[in-house]
Amino acid sequence: MCCLTESGNITTDVDSLRSEIRDKSVRVIDVRREDDYKKDHISTAVNLPLANLLSDDSPERVVKLVNSMGIDDETRVVVYDDTFGALASRVAWTLEYLGHSDVSLLETTYSNWKSLGLENS
């Protein structure tokens, strides 16, 4: 089984993500529904609802979609949802399948992130 990141870590912990957000060295993807994202989300996160991805997950379309979000092959990506990774893992897998070598899952849910009082928009 191949790991999702160059470092071999499948998940990213809360403190690491907070640091990467401050350093602007990561692109965060929120895979929750658009309505939930619009209410609030992790600061700097972009929204890619899983349903949007699954409506046409051809490699060409997905590459174009993630490129439009400022993600290229060199971009570090952390994906999160509110289901302990059930939805986020599908997006992460898709990125890895397309050759992206630095993608991981946030180790917690958005609800937990928010309950900890961490940065959100």
TrEMBL record:
<dbReference type="InterPro" id="IPR051126">
    <property type="entry name" value="Thiosulfate_sulfurtransferase"/>
</dbReference>
<dbReference type="InterPro" id="IPR001763">
    <property type="entry name" value="Rhodanese-like_dom"/>
</dbReference>
<dbReference type="InterPro" id="IPR036873">
    <property type="entry name" value="Rhodanese-like_dom_sf"/>
</dbReference>
<dbReference type="Pfam" id="PF00581">
    <property type="entry name" value="Rhodanese"/>
</dbReference>
<keyword id="KW-0677">Repeat</keyword>
<keyword id="KW-0808">Transferase</keyword>
<keyword id="KW-0670">Pyruvate</keyword>
<dbReference type="GO" id="GO:0004792">
    <property type="term" value="F:thiosulfate-cyanide sulfurtransferase activity"/>
</dbReference>
<protein>
    <submittedName>
        <fullName>Putative 3-mercaptopyruvate sulfurtransferase protein</fullName>
        <ecNumber>2.8.1.1</ecNumber>
    </submittedName>
</protein>
<feature type="domain" description="Rhodanese">
    <location>
        <begin position="22"/>
        <end position="121"/>
    </location>
</feature>
